[in-house]
Amino acid sequence: MRRFFEDVFVMRMLILSFLIFCFAVFANETVVIYQLEVIRLNEEIATKINLKDIQVEKLDSNNLGFQVIYDAKTMEILMKAPFITANLELGTKNEKTLISTRPWVSTIVGKPAVLFAATEELSFTTGLRTGVGMRIQLTPVNVHENKILTKIAFSDPYGPTVFDNEMWLSNECFSPICITTMKTEKETMYFAIYAKASLVSKLPENNIYMVGSVDELADMFVTSSADRISEVNGYVYTDFSRISGAVEASIWANDSLVVQSGLVIIPLSFVFGVEHLVSEDGLRAGAKFLYDSDYYLLLGVSDYSKISENFTLFAEFYPFKISLSQWKFESISWKVGARIDFEDYCIVLGAYKSGQINLWLEGRVRVYRALFLLVGIQYSLDNRIYLRAGISVKF
Predict the structure, then answer these.
(1) Are 33 and 198 in contact (CB under 8 A)?
(2) Which residues contact 268 (CB under 8 A, 6 or more apart)?
(3) Residue 80 Rama label (left phi>0; alpha psi -120 to 50; beta)
(4) What is the CA radius of gyration of the chain?
(5) Is the pLDDT of residue 90 over 60?
(6) How far, rounded to the nearest angstrom, does the alpha carbon of residue 342 sit from its chain's CA centroid?
(7) What is d(CA 216, CA 236) in angstroms, rounded to the nearest whole number?
(8) Is the Cβ–Cβ distance between 136 and 146 less than 8 Å?
(9) For residue 276, what are the contacts with CB-CB under 8 A and spacing of at least 6?
(10) Cα separation of the two ends of the chain
């Protein structure tokens, strides 16, 4: 019996020694912290840096496609492009401009760390899951002179892994990883991805504060049917008895606030207003100040719904039109229409009421990047026909 207790004691001491040894080993384990720069590019910027011309793989004919482009020279050009370096900021920008975010993750040598962000749709009729997103797996393999050899696996959660490589990363600067394109039924998204790595031999003993978040990375894949395109239009028009001119502007101040203004020369009138996006489906609430032989305050709502990638329906309804000189309600103001957008041209058909009811048809043709030539015809129910021509700038 004594022999048995001695053996148990020795076994316990061995187990305790092993645990102490393991604790000492893992307590001194070097922690690797990865920080990524994920940049979403819009269609115009992607065209400027010729992403479409350097694709090395043809996308499948499926609704969802995914592809990685890896070219060191192109990444060098991308890093030096002023429209990229001027916008490397934290946070989410306007949907139609550059978006960047810096998520981070930590691990130890030999253990993978994963960043995952996606949006998914489930079809109740077919049971199929479709979506778009990215999964980035970083595994530190070796450490040498403050540089970390890292195995990088980049994949589409709804497709095969398309990028698997080993690279040396340091904490001096962000190293280019890859440029990716993600294609859905509605749009093609372009991303540039960079990474850097830092070593931490000992974690801080005081309170630890979060220094990074993946919320902004996830926001990149939140789909929205609300279009956020700013534009400025200038044109001349005539009813064959006189010639006049007008300038109109609709500018997104941020992700939810759009500023609208307009000026007509003959007869003089102008409008200034703001609309606030209250729903990602495109519903807005707004207020406008109008001068048209009198001063008016207008309150109402508008709805701009993107039905498909190329087709948008819009409607404005301002039931409260108040004369500021007489303090009484005037006739309501409204506008309805449809817009068909393609890469190089656009067609708008609609009707509006501001005094008289008017019908109009308008076409725009791209002449240079964001510059469009504008021509249109308008018919008023008081039997007047107007022709208009001018330019339009989108940004």
Answers:
(1) yes
(2) 291
(3) alpha
(4) 29
(5) no
(6) 19
(7) 43
(8) no
(9) 256, 257, 284, 285, 286
(10) 87
- Range 353-361 average pLDDT: 85
Lowest mean pLDDT among 3-12, 60-69, 294-303, 377-386: 60-69
The helix or strand, by DSSP H or E, that contains position 4, with its residue range, turns out to be helix 2-27
Query: If DSSP codes are grouped into helix, strand and coil, which group holds residue 90?
Result: coil
User: Could you tell me the maximum CA-CA distance found in the chain, to the nearest angstrom?
Assistant: 120
Asked if 240 contacts 268 with a C-beta cutoff of 8 angstroms, the reply is no
Query: Which DSSP helix (H) or strand (E) runs through 231?
Result: strand 231-238
The answer to whether the Cα torsion of 204, 207, 210, 211 is positive or negative is negative
CB–CB of 79/176 below 8 Å? yes
| Segment 115-153, tens digit of pLDDT | 777 766 666 566 676 677 778 888 889 888 778 899 988
C-alpha–C-alpha distance, residues 105 and 331, integer Å: 59
| pLDDT given at position 81 | 29
Among 108-117, 161-170, 306-315, 337-346, name the most confident range.
337-346
Distance CA 13, CA 17 (A): 6
3-state SS of 28-82? CCCEEEEEEEEEEECHHHHHHCCHHHHCCCCCCCCCCEEEEECCHHHHHHHHHCH
Backbone angles phi, psi at 173, to 5 degrees: -160, 165
**Contact 48/370 with Cβ under 8 angstroms?**
no
Give all domains of the chain, ordered by start, each with its CATH number. 30-219 (no CATH), 231-394 (2.40.160.40)
Tokens of 100: 């960047």
Burial zone of 220 (CB within 10 Å; 0-12 exposed, 13-18 middle, 19+ buried)? buried
124 three-class SS: coil
Give the per-residue pLDDT at 160: 62
> Under a CB-based contact definition with an 8 Å cutoff, are residues 333 and 349 in contact?
no
pLDDT at 101 over 70: no
Pairing label, strands 311-323, 129-144: unpaired
Residue keyed to tokens 């959660």: 157
Low-confidence winner among 27-41, 82-96, 253-267 (lowest mean pLDDT): 82-96
Whole-angstrom Cα distance, residue 268 to residue 284? 28
**Interatomic CA distance for residues 339 and 264, integer angstroms:** 23
Half-sphere exposure of 272 (CA within 13 A, CB side): 1
Selected residue with higher pLDDT from 219 and 110: 110
